[in-house]
Every structure is written in C-alpha cells, then in structure tokens.
Amino acid sequence: MPETLTSLWRRTVSRAPRALAVAESSGARRYSREELEAAAGLWLSGVACVPDLRGRRIVMAEPNGLEWLRVFLGIVSAGAVAAPVDPAEPPDAREAIARSIGASWIWEGGRLRLIRKRRPSPRRDLCLLKVTSGSTGVPKAYAFTHAQMIADGRQVCATMGIRESDLNLAVVPFGHSYGLGNLVVPLLVQGTAAVCGQAPFPQAIASDCRTWRPTVLPAVPILLRALVGAEFPEVSLKSLRLVISAGSPLPAAVAQAFSSRFGRKIHGFYGSSETGGISYDRSGEATQSGRSVGTALKGVCIVPLRGRRFSVASPAVMGRGRHSPRDYGTLSPSGELVLLGRSDRSVKIGAKRLDPAEVELALRALESVRDAVVFPYPRGGEGLAAAVLSDGSAAAIRRALAGRIAAWKLPDRIMVLREFPVTARGKPDIRKIESSL
Length: 437
Known about the structure:
Elements: H1 5-15, E1 20-24, E2 30-32, H2 33-46, E3 57-60, H3 66-77, E4 81-84, H4 91-100, E5 105-108, E6 111-114, E7 126-132, E8 140-145, H5 146-160, E9 167-170, H6 177-190, E10 193-196, H7 202-212, E11 216-219, H8 221-229, E12 242-245, H9 252-262, E13 266-272, E14 276-280, H10 285-289, E15 295-296, E16 301-304, E17 310-313, E18 322-323, E19 327-331, E20 337-342, E21 347-349, E22 352-354, H11 356-364, E23 369-376, E24 384-390, H12 394-402, E25 413-417, H13 430-435
Parallel strand pairs: 1-10, 3-4, 3-5, 9-10, 11-12, 12-13, 24-25
Antiparallel strand pairs: 1-2, 5-6, 7-8, 13-14, 14-15, 16-17, 17-18, 19-20, 21-22, 23-24
C-alpha cells in the first residue's frame, strides 16, 4: 500500500501517543497525538450520515488552531479532498470559491453544507487543493496527491534540519502552501509539534516564545521587520534556533538588523503553490546580503531555461513533477537561485518593456527606504506607482531614485507609508494600496 498522510500520521501516533501535537499559545487547549487522532475520529462520526465523501472536494474555512487540524485530518481520513480557504472570506465568497473549484461541500459553523452534488474525483490519491486568488483575483485550485504533499514536507524537514523534537511557532496560516509544508505535514509525517500563536504581532510573538520556548519560527517579511522595530527584551527570542522567511522578498537590511539585534540569522525560503518548496538559504548569508534565495532543497532540481526562466522538478511538484514558475531567475556559479522579477508583471511604457521588480530593487537600495512595492498605474495603463516604507518624503525619494534609474522608469506616483496593508498570506495587498492612491 502506498504511504498516505493518514497512514504516516497513525504511525506517528503509535510511536509516541502522549506526545504534544498542537496547542493554543494561551494554554487553554492542547492535543496530544492520540487526542488529535480521537478528535479527527469524532469529526468522521459526526458526518457519518453524509453520503460517501471519498474523492469529493470539501472547502474548509477554519482559522489556525486545533479545529483546523481536526477537520483536515477528518477530511483526509475520509478519502475526501480538503480545500482550505481564508476564514476571513464572507460566506458568499466562500460559496463562490467552492463552486468555482468544483467543491461539493463547505465545512463551516461546525457542519457540512452541501453546495452541489458532484461526481467524485477518479483520482483516489488526491488529498488537497491549494486554493489561491491568482494574479487576476480569480480563484485557482492546484490538486496534490498524498505522495506529493509527503515529499514536500520531507524535503523541507531534511533541508532545514527540522526534527521531531522541534516545536514550531505557528503564525503563518496552516492552509497556505508555506504552512502546509512547514507546519502541517511535518506534524503528520514525523510528529513535529506546533503551538498556535496568539496573533502575528511582535509583542505576542515575544510572549509566546517566552512561554513555550519554540525552536522554529516560519515567518513572513512584514512580521520579521516588525520584530526588529518592536520594544521587548532580546532574550525573549532566545529559544529560536531557526528563523525562516518566505512569501515575499525580505530586504537585506531587515535580515541584517534582525541578526544584529537577536543574534540569529534569517534563512530565506522560496517556493510556489504549484511546486512546494524550491530553494533555501542554509547558512543565512545569502539572505543577509540579499544576493539570492539560496540553493535547491534536497530532492529538488532547478533547471535554467531560455529567457531567464527556469523549471523545477521534484516529487512534490503538482501534476507530472515539473513546473516553470512565473518568476524570472538565474543560477549563480555556486548554484544559488537569483530571482529577477516575474514574467507576468511586465509593463509596457511607451515602446519599452519594464519589470516593476527592477524599480523595487532600486528603491530598496536607497538608504531611506525600508521596503517597496511597484505596480502598474493606473491599472492596465502605461505607467507605474510605488508604495514605499520610509521616513523620508516622496519628493526626496524621487530625487534619490532618479540618480539610479533612467527617467522613463521613474514611477508616476510615489506614496510613503508606515506599513503595508497585507493579505492573509503576508504579502503586500496591492488592491488596498491602489485604492488609497
């Protein structure tokens, strides 16, 4: 019989049934491995009256926590396909997503709600749909098998040195590709426990670290930047032996400031929904210098293609095991992956093409700029706008930028912000930024 998330999880439970599986940082609730398995069994018992769920897609809208893992395990144990979505989505939006991805049911409010009777998937090895908004805002669903999810979790753990004895501090969402590969699958396949953080805010993170002494923190750049600037004792984070950054580019200045303050290097991590983990900065030096996103994970092969594109091959990649991300990138002589922007972000200004990532890099190189995002302005037009985190003025930033790039590449609008609004995935929310222009 091929390995499944369920079979590996039951092996994990039998090895140490009373070991911690997951806890709320408040300490109000916690599950041992055997308690989490029993809770998933109760979920299955509660939906026993529902016709056969095997092969059917079920949208689940739960926040990070014990309930998320209980429901996910129940769905997978039933042979169904879990499709986690952002619980902040209103009910009408969840239903629209469910219909667009071919789901039969939605789990919300403690019950299954029928959306539409559909035939089960003929692929009985599927276990998960990663649901993303896509670059156009239209939901997309990428289907993954048990084998692919297991491979991603194992490749992540083997490359990053994440062990069964580690404790993850879970502040990134369980249901996103990052959380699945770094939090959920490591728990199921090798028993790496997770404590669900109070909130993704610096003081809460510091408090959780003092109380629970986690050893691994998968984080996003905006949280790491906030930790650097927050006021709390540096020793609060001393239990962390591994700090990971993924989801969007981390400015080198933030990595340097974090290392200087907390004595821990940040390790950059790069992946995509379609592939799982791709590359990782093992030493933390590439992240601190900003030169690359590290080298390929164990089990992953990165192949350069024409036109600054590359393909990724591994047992974790959806479909046939090979995919070309939308990012441009090259491999350095030492095998490090250097990202050069996205192939779907190109903007035509006059008769010339420009990748906004080039302008972002120039802005981040300015001493007064902590971070920057650049996007077409007006939407669909032939110009650019930039949102920057800085204490300087827009006029001063424009003057400094003019000394680094050609005049035709200068943004038409520069907006100075204290913080970026972010999506649930921890990335700058371009739509909210656009609406404030």
